Amino acid sequence: MDRGPDLLPALLGVLGAGAAYLPLEPSLPADRLAYMIEEAGARTVLADAGTAALLPDGVALRVDGPAAGPAGPLPEVHPDALAYVIFTSGSTGRPKGVGVSHRAIVNRLRWMQQTFPLTHADRVVQKTPIGFDVSVWELFWPLMAGAGLVVARPDGHKDSAYLASLITSQRITTLHFVPSMLAVFLEEPLLPETMRRVICSGEALGADLAGRFLERLPQTELHNLYGPTEAAVDVSWHACAPGEPSVPIGGPITNTRMEVLDARGERVPIGTPGELCLGGVQLARGYVNRPALTAERFVPDPYGPPGSRLYRTGDVARWLPGGEVEYLGRSDFQVKIRGQRVELGEIEAVLAAQPEVRAAVVTLRQERLVGYVVLDPDSEIDGAALAVRLRGRLPEHMVPGAWVVLESLPVTANGKLDRAALPAPGEQERERYVPPRDPFEARLAVLWEETLGVRAVSVHDDFFALGGHSLLALRLTMRLRKELGRDVALSSVLTAPTVALLAAELRRPQDNDGAPERIVPLRPAGDRTPIFLFHALGGQVFRYLPLTRHLGADQPVYAIQAAGLASGEEPHATLEEMVDDYVAHLLKIRPHGPYVLGGFCIGGNIALESARRLRAMGEQVPLVVLFYSDADEPVLRASLEDDAVLLMHALAGGPVQVELEDLHRMDPEERLLTVIDAAARADTLQPDTADLNQARRFVKVFRANAHAVGHYRHDPYDGDVLLFSPAENGAAPGDMGWSSVITGRLRISPILGDRFTVLYEPLVADAAAELRSSIDHGLTDG
């Protein structure tokens, strides 16, 4: 059942009848649900109209069916009887069910009430999925103590804004976070003030995160708890304090024991790492229908009373001098992904069962699962198809987000798998880079890059292929809400996982209609002299994003796009009109200098004339930077004289596989369609031109800009100019006609590749460094 008002009565009904409950999350694949039901021996599954269809025939009992008659007296249940079964990931390819007794979980709940006393004035929010054992104390502890229980909406635990609102409106005093979600929650601008305590578990809690919490919420307690499902949720706790260099998992709770043992099962000295083993009343009864696995993990306790057991956690830990335990990591291939325990072997087993897969390994790299597969020689399956298959067998968080196909798995000298030699997913997996095509896509692209920690996000890059997961998607929706001033559902990122698709889904009418802002703030923050970069022939400005990234976080960068790109707006007819318009908009952003101006292609020509205008007004322009800008012929002469040539350069960036004479014989509309088709087939179609109406506007702007600047001749300019000019075949770069114009200092820097490469990786890093140095230290005579 999904979380809702019927869930808790259903659980209480199961326990009141003397039975044990098995939580089944409706989001799991049907095959996995069927396996869990069979493995646990569940004869009846409570479901509603929306979930009954997910179940095998004959097991569903509808909770929304006819009401039952009056119940008889409640049966007596032995404290060691089974209370619940929760499945966790298993290394053999199938999840394993952990059976927990009433005695074990009651001890845990009583300790919690003794340690953190709840009263009728408290409210606890239930937001953890029922398949995760934290849900047990969220559901039953407040009821045992007479406190209020607030049930969050389904999937509400993924939405930090919703949680902040719920905590405030319902006056929540106690709640749980896994550390990764707590980090997202702390990014909320307004945090609730009703919280008395926050409890963390499920992942290692870092000292930085704990410190940030205590700084933002000094009146709220933060507690770090530790424990596996096999020991009734939690067995240790630590109260966090400001300034701690690390956050231990604490000491044992009531009626539990913690042992740190070496490979021989002997206790190790304080400070020495060993395997953390747990003892006491909270140990689970074992794994359901897995006696061999139970015997392997639940071993005789040499330090306890006769017949007692220890659970071997597989966690590496050490005792601290103060009597608490510090968690150091894992000793096997179990990992935690956003609080969920995952055995990599389970994923590998499911992969190896695919007929095309000869061998498979799964690793965790930077919070992303990576699948390495060796395929049959004739196989045509790829990672995307394998991911689809895995989603039918595994929960979403266990499906790799990146894939690497290998000819063979790397091995060590003695023939064992060499995990350290597995290559990182390469950039070759990404599609060709397509830059943002309008201001809205540019804003999204920057947010993606900052959220994912990657550079140069193409508008067609898949969010999840770049390492995104549900938690990062949640962070992205938070950033979108702050940037756009509107709520963006997490499902929007899941169903529209590229910048282009998400922009299309989120775009508002005002983003397309009316006069757009002429100046696009690529990075408005920073205390350095601002840089204003003017558009090239196509009128767009997003080729400047890589340069902006490399100029540094303290460097303000604005871009000025052309008139005419928006529906109903006319392009400028002359360079003088451009300067009038652009300088007026610039002064609205920064009423007074100094300014650094620049641009690529005709953007450099516009920048120089705008600098001349600003200096005539008494403003300072210490530097103009020209990226492949020509003083004598800013526009290819053939483009000005032949409309077919102009069309090819506008839509395809150069000639296409169509005879020029054939284009001349066509009418304008047929010519436009022919060039678009040829450019699309050659994969050279320029961004933002696939839509016919946009293509017409784009060509109109390109043509107007070409004619406005194409015949312009610059008067002498006595300011400083930095020119990036191509250096062909090892020769020194030419002056591109600027020596006869610039009477001030002119520095010429070589472009070592194609003319566009000066603004793209990897050469853009050098260009940014030289531009920044020129701003700081001025020019030497070129």
UniProtKB/TrEMBL annotation:
Which cofactor is essential here?
pantetheine 4'-phosphate
Which InterPro entries does the entry link to?
AA_adenyl_dom, AB_hydrolase_fold, ACP-like_sf, AMP-bd_C, AMP-bd_C_sf, AMP-binding_CS, AMP-dep_synth/lig_dom, PKS_PP-bd
Coiled-coil residues are: none
Does Phosphoprotein appear among the keywords? yes
Q: Which domain of life is it from?
A: Bacteria
Q: Can the keyword Phosphoprotein be found in this entry's annotation?
A: yes
Q: Which UniProt keywords apply?
A: Phosphopantetheine, Phosphoprotein
Q: Name one GO cellular component term.
A: cytosol
Residues crossing the lipid bilayer are none
Q: Where is the Carrier domain?
A: 435-510
UniProt-recorded Gene Ontology molecular function terms: 2,3-dihydroxybenzoate-serine ligase activity; phosphopantetheine binding
The UniProt entry, under NCBIfam families, shows: AA-adenyl-dom
The protein's matches in PANTHER family, at most eight in alphabetical order, are given as: FATTY ACID SYNTHASE, NONRIBOSOMAL PEPTIDE SYNTHETASE
Name-wise, this protein is Amino acid adenylation domain-containing protein
- Natural source organism: Nonomuraea dietziae
The opening ranks of the lineage are: Bacteria, Bacillati, Actinomycetota, Actinomycetes, Streptosporangiales
